[in-house]
UniProtKB/TrEMBL annotation:
Catalyzed reaction equations: ATP + protein L-histidine = ADP + protein N-phospho-L-histidine
Main location: membrane
Keyword Phosphoprotein attributed: yes
Localisation per UniProt entry: Membrane
Keyword Glycoprotein included in the entry's annotation: no
Taxonomic placement: Bacteria, Pseudomonadati, Planctomycetota, Planctomycetia, Pirellulales
Classification via SMART domains: HAMP, HATPase_c, HisKA
InterPro entries with a match to the protein in the record: HAMP_dom, HATPase_C_sf, HATPase_dom, His_kinase_dom, HisK_dim/P_dom, HisK_dim/P_sf, Sig_transdc_His_kin-like_C
UniProt keywords, alphabetically: ATP-binding, Kinase, Membrane, Nucleotide-binding, Phosphoprotein, Transferase, Transmembrane, Transmembrane helix, Two-component regulatory system
Enzyme Commission number(s) of this protein: 2.7.13.3
Domain HAMP: 180-232
Gene Ontology CC, one term: membrane
Full protein name: histidine kinase
Any one Gene Ontology molecular-function term assigned to this protein's record: phosphorelay sensor kinase activity
Amino acid sequence: MKLTAKIVGIFLLGIVFLTALFGYLTVQSEYQQFKRIKEQNAASLGNEVRETLVVAWKDQGHQGAIRLVRDFANRHQQMIIRWVTTDEGHATSKADISKKELDLATPDAMATVTKQDPEGNEQYLIYYPIDVESNRAGYVEFKVPLNDVAEYTRLTTYRTTSIIVGMLLCGAVIITLGIRMVGRRLDKLVEKTQRISQGDFSQPVEIQGDDEISELGLALNQMSDTLYQQQQELAAASSARISAMEQLRHVDRLKTVGRLASGMAHELGTPLNVVSGRAGLIASNRLSQDEVRDSALVIKSEADRMATIIRQLLDFARRRPPQQSQIDIRDVVNTAINLLQPMAHQRDVELIASDSAPLIASVDPAQLQQVITNLIVNAIHASSPGKQIHVSQFQQEATPPTETATPKHLYCCICVADQGTGIADDVMPHLFDPFFTTKEVGEGTGLGLSVSYGIIEDHNGWIDVQSQLGEGSRFTIYLPAQVD
C-alpha cells in the first residue's frame, strides 16, 4: 500500500512539474513572440513614415512632426502613435524612457520598455528614432496595450491549473484503486512471508485474480508447502541422527564396560572369598556369639563394597537421555577414577588424581563420565606396567581453535596425561575420525575418541591433544565454565 502511494505520488509530482513548466514556457514564448511582432510592425510603420517626417521636421520643426505623426496615427489605429523628443522644452512629447537608452536606439534595434498606465494596465512602448542629417530629431512612439497578453496568460494559467487539479484527482483515484487492487494483496503476501520466516507454514494465502500478484501468491503457497515437507523431513532426519548418535555412544559405553569386566572380576574376587570364608565359619557353629556378630559385620561390609562396585558399573552402562545441569566436575572425575581403578591395578598402572577448587560447569554427567572414562582407558592401554597416569582439573582462559580472533573465555579443563608410547604425527590428523584405530584387532573399534569429541563439541567445548613418541600423550578437555 505504501509502495503504491509512493510510486503514484512520484509519478504525479513529475507530471505536475512538467505541466507547470510547459505552461510557464508557453506563456513566456507567446509573450516574447507578441513583442517581436509588435516591434516588426513598429519598424515597418517607422520606415513608412520616416521620409515624410524628415521633410516635415525640416519645414516646420517639432510642430510639423507632431501634426504629421498625429495624422499618421489616425490612419493606423491598431496602435497609439505619437511624436516624442528628449528636448526639455517640449514636455508634452517627453518619452517614458531614459535618454541614455534612447540614444542607443536604431531603426534595426529600437528602444523598448514596459510601463503601467494610471489605471494599472501594462503597455509596451517602442521608440523608432528619426535622424535628420546625422542629428537625432526625435522618436516615433508606438504604444501597444498588453491586455490581450495578460488575458492570454490568465487563460493559460487557468487551463494549466485545471489540468494539474485533474491530475491530482486522477492520482487520488489511482491510489485508491492501487490500494484496493495492489496494496492489500501485497499486504497478504508480506504477512505470509513473515509467517514463513517464523516457521509457520499453515494458512495458505488467498489472492483473487489471474494477474502476476495472484501467480506470486500461488508460488508462495507452493514454496510454503515444500518448506513444510522439508522441515518435516529434516526433523525426522535430525531425530534419527540424534537417536543414532545416542545409540553409538551407548555402544561405546558398553564396549568400555566389557573392558572393565575382567578388572571388576578380579576386584570382586577378594571380597567374595572373604564373604565365603566368614559364612563358612558361621555355618560351623564353632564361633562364639561375639565372633558370629563380627563375621556378620565383615560380610555386610564386603557385600556393600561389592554392591558399590556393581552399582558404579551399572550406572555407567545404563542408557540415559542427555540432560545438562550445573555440577561440580570433580565429582564426575572421581567417579570415573574409582570405576577404573581395578583395570589400572590389573595392568599395574597407577592412577593419580590431583585436587582442585570446585569446577562448576553445565554438562551431562553421564556423557562427561563416558568421555573421561574413554580417555583414561586409552591411557591405561598405552601405558606400560609401573607407569603413572595423572588426571588433573583446573580453570584456564582460552580461545576456541576455530575462533582465533575472538577474546578469551574461562574454561573448566580436565587433563589426562600418560607416560605411554605417544602418537605419531601422521596419525594425529585422523585421531578423532570414526572407526580409526591403531590398536590390535579386537582391542578397539575406533569409536571412543570420535564419540568423545562429539560429546564435548555438543557442550560447546573441544579436546586438545599434545603427544610425543616415546614420552606419552596429554588429552585436555575444555568446557565453558559457569561464572557467577
